[in-house]
Design brief:
single chain; 227 residues; Rossmann fold; 11% strand
């Protein structure tokens, strides 16, 4: 196993709750590039460090972050329309790929009768396009940024996913790649594992997650570990 932190279950897991971007799908770099291109098309300078702050955030929350770094008006509708356009172009070009081990982990959970759900801050339209493009459209429960939920790090997205699965939050394992995501799982009283993507592991993250590893393949091993 390639665990950076933890690696032994602290209590039984009855369900697995997945983030999507940067966790199941290698989309964070593409998404941030689309954001950058949208701001460039609008003639608005935007630092990459600000773009990173929006990882795991809903569109509404991202708008607030962007607006705080923009002098003058910010046409949010045009911005998101442009990002969707650029993202769709990249998907059509075949640039979107599943993370290594994603399909295998979902198959493993199905074979072992462990229910799973997707809890993403992205809009449902982007989720649908992304899952279909990567062959991961196997989720019967999806909670997204379009639902009436607060943005991560609030636990709403994962709590609603657990509720729809009918599983107590404390028996759910949350898989996340972003700091706001691991805090969302932690704030929901769930067991949390971070698999870092664009933001590398930092020791301070151990306050909000029980495990951290280098890839999805390690999750099968984690779930097989006896308590």
């Amino acid at each position: 196993m390639s665990f950076i932190h933890g690696g032994t279950l602290i209590r039984p897991v009855s369900a697995v709750l997945f983030d999507m971007d940067g966790l199941l799908i290698d989309s964070e770099r593409l998404a941030l590039e689309c954001d950058r291109c949208a701001f460039e098309a609008m003639g608005i300078p935007m630092d990459y460090s600000v773009l990173l702050q929006t990882l795991g955030e809903t569109a509404e929350s991202s708008n607030r972050i962007f607006a705080s770094h923009i002098d003058g008006p910010f046409d949010t509708e045009r911005f998101w329309a442009l990002t969707r356009q650029f993202f769709d172009e990249k998907v059509q070009a075949g640039e979107l790929e599943a993370k290594p081990g994603a399909r295998e982990l979902i198959y493993f959970l199905g074979q072992n009768g462990i229910p799973c759900a997707l809890g993403s801050s992205s809009a449902l339209t982007r989720i649908s396009v992304s899952l279909q493009a990567t062959g991961l459209d196997r989720f019967t429960v999806i909670v997204c940024g379009d639902d009436p939920v607060r943005s991560k790090p609030e636990p709403d997205i994962f709590l609603l996913a657990a509720e729809r699965l009918g599983i107590c939050p404390e028996h759910c394992l949350v898989l996340e790649d972003s700091p706001s995501g691991i805090r969302a799982g932690f704030n929901g009283g769930m067991q949390v594992c971070m698999i870092p993507d664009l933001i590398p592991w930092q020791n301070e993250f151990s306050r909000f997650c029980h495990h951290a590893c280098t890839g999805l393949a390690d999750i099968q091993t984690l779930l097989k570990e006896p308590l």
